[in-house]
Every structure is written in C-alpha cells, then in structure tokens.
Amino acid sequence: MPLVVFWHGGRWSSGDKVEYRFVGSALAELGYATMIVNYRRYPQVKMASFMDDAARAALWAAEHAADFEADPGRLYLMGHSAGAHIAALLTLREADVQDMFGPPELYRQSQPINFVRRGAPPMLLIHGAMDALVSPWNSRNLAGALGALGVPVILKLYSGIGHGDTVGALSLPARRRAATLSDIADFVKAHQAQAAFDAATEGIA
Description:
6 helices, three-stranded parallel sheet
C-alpha cells in the first residue's frame, strides 16, 4: 500500500504530531500507511536543521516501509501550512543545497519554486481560496512553474475555504467542508495507474 509522510503546520515554531491523529485516520480509510512526524522548530533550530529532520524522517519511512506492509516505491510527502512547505521543499530541492539556508542572501533557498526542475515528482497542491495567512498565489505560481516544465501538477483551489480548513476537512466532523480526502485519493490512484502503465510499457518502442 502507499506510504504517506505528513508534516504538521504551525509557522515552523509550534504544533505537534499528536494534534493530527485525524489525518492518519482519514488516510487509513483510503488504505494508506501514514507517518505523522515531528521536527525541531524555531527558535530551537533554523531551517537547515528542521529540513534535515524532515529528510531523515522521509528516509526512515522509505527504509522501513516494509515494516508497515507499505511499498517504498509509493512514498508520498504531504503537509499542511508550514508542513506543506517542508514537504514541497524536500521534494524539489537538490541534495547539495541542504546546508545553504541561513543568511538573508540565501533566503531564496527557502522557496520551493526556486527548485522546480524537469522530472520532478507529480504534485497535488491544495489551497483555500480564502486563505488570509498564506496567499493562494503561492500555490498558483508553484503550479504554473511546474506545469511550464512539464511536471504533472494538479492545483485545487477551494472556494470559501480558509487556511486551516483544507487539513481540517480530513477530520470526520468537517469532512463535508472541502474535498481534501477525495482529491488525495484521486491523485494517488492516478499516480499509481501511471506508474503501472510506465512499468508495463518500459522497453516497448
């Protein structure tokens, strides 16, 4: 089964994985193994360190997928708010920039859009159109940059939805608030179908 690694939000300085058990429960309904992971936060550490925590968590997940009867080749990185930033940055950045964060002149290294490249993994971007904390243009711009390079990307902008509602819709009480869970399921199914097709046609001229 697929394995999802999820990072919580909290402006990189608050939040804890125990607050997101509902995410694991929702994804389990879809038949996914899920890891909800913590990371060190500001001001204890800065970006290089919490990104290192995220990279170690993703690597551990891939190496131990079989312990959870999951397929390391079907690994998905996911997050909400600051956690979504971590997941996107971890997906797109190259290994040689992991230690480049810190001084103001290197702040651009913190932006996933600056690491968009051909051949990047498919991405699903979900954003509330009424998000007053993180402007939807961030997701629009990232989707545009990915699409311009031929990277498969799906952007879902939920009308009337704010910042916390996208992940909140994974909880049972708020499931009708947004289509987050079904959009995740559709994305994973489509990705798995494409991967199966690619494997079946490999080597065919």
